[in-house]
Amino acid sequence: MKPRWAGLRARWDAFAAAPLDPALRDRRAVIVVVALTATAHIGLTGGRIAVTLGGIELGASAFTAGLLIAFFSLLPMFLSVATGRLIDRIGPMKPMVWGLGVMSVGVVAPLLSWEVGTLFFCSTMVGLGYMGLHTASQKLAGEIGGPEARRLNFNLMSIGFSISAFVGPIVTGVMIDLAGYRATFGLLLLTPFLALIGLRWLEPDPRLLLPLPRLTQGPKQDSVMDLLREPRMFRIYLVVVMISTAWDIHQFVVPIYGKQIGLSASVIGLLLGAYALATFLVRLAMPFFARRLEEWTVILASLVIGCLAFLLYPLSTWLPFMLSLSFMLGIGLGSSQPLIMALIH
After folding, report:
1. How many CA atoms lie within 13 A of 83 on its CB side?
2. Of 231, 232, 245, 226, whose CA–CA distance to 345 is shortest?
C-alpha cells in the first residue's frame, strides 16, 4: 500500500476507533447502516428493472417476466426465518458481508452470459443476497439506540430506501437506453462493492460483531406459527402481505405495460422514480403525522389509495396521468412501511 494511502487509512481507523458519546456513536452507526443498505438497494431496484426489460428484450412472455420478478423472492420466502435466527446467534456483520457477496455473484452473471436462464440466476442470487443484508440492517435499526430511537431509526431507513428506489430505476432506465443491458449490469455491480466498503466503517463498533439482544419469554424458542396465532401479529402480517404485494405488482406491471404502449426504458424508470419520490416525501412528513394519527388509520388510508391507483392505471396511456398515479400510489404505500416495522417490534 502506498505511504499516502496507508497514512490516510491509519488516521481513519484512529478516528473510527476513538471513544464517542453513546448518542453520537448510535447516530453514526444508524447513518452508516442506512447509507450502505440504500446503496445495495439501488442494485436491487435497478436489477429488477434490468431483469424485467432484459427478459422482454430476449423474447420472454409476460408470464416469464413475472417469474423473473418472483424469483427475487423465491429463496427469501423459505430462508428469511432461518436467516433471522442465524443473525440472532452470530450477529449482523457476517450475514451482511455474505449477502453483499451473493448479490455480486448474481449481478455479474448477465455480464458473462446474456440469456433468460442467466437472468433467472441473477434474480435468485440478488434476492437472496439482499435478504441477508436487509434482515440484518432491520435488526440493527430496531436495536441501536434502544426503543426510544426505534421509530426514528426506521423512518431514516425508509427515507434511505425511498432515495435508492428513486435513483435505481431512473439510472437503470437511462443506462439501458444509452449503453445497453450488459453495461447496465456492470454499473449495478458497483452497488454491492460500495456497500462492502461502507461496512468497514462499522467494524470498529464491537456491538456489531456480537449477537444482538433477543426478547424471549422462556427456554422454548418461538416458532413462526406461534407468532401468527397472536391476533395482533396476524393482523400486521396480513397487512404486510397486502402492501408488499401491491408494491411488487407495481414494480412488475409498469415495465410490461410500458413496453406494450411503446415507452422507452428511461420513461419507465421515470414512472417508477415518481413512485419512489412520493415515498421519500411522505416519509419526510411521517414524523409530523405519526404524532397526530393512529398507525392503523394511516395503514388503512394507504390501502384505499392503493386500490384507487390500481383501478385507474390501465385507463390511460397519457404519461402525465400515469406519473400522477404512480406518485399517488407511492404516497399511499410509502406512508405505511415505517409504521408497520415499528408495530412489528
Report:
1. 25
2. 232
CB-based contact 275:329 (threshold 8 Å): yes
Contact 185, 107 (CB under 8 A): yes
Q: How many CB atoms lie within 10 A of CB 231?
A: 8
pTM of the model: 0.79
What's the pLDDT tens digit per position in 117-128? Answer: 999 999 999 999
Alpha helices in 219-318 (DSSP H): 224-229, 231-260, 265-290, 295-312
Residue ranges of alpha helices (H) inside the chain are 3-17, 22-57, 62-70, 74-90, 93-112, 116-143, 150-179, 181-188, 190-199, 224-229, 231-260, 265-290, 295-312, 319-334, 337-344
Do residues 299 and 332 lie in contact, with contact meaning Cβ atoms separated by under 8 Å?
Answer: no
Q: Is residue 221 pLDDT above 80, yes or no?
A: no
- Nearest-10 crossing angle of helices 74-90, 116-143: 40
Residue 261 cell numbers, joined: 404502449
Q: How many CB atoms lie within 10 A of CB 194?
A: 15
* Residue corresponding to grid cell 488516521: 11
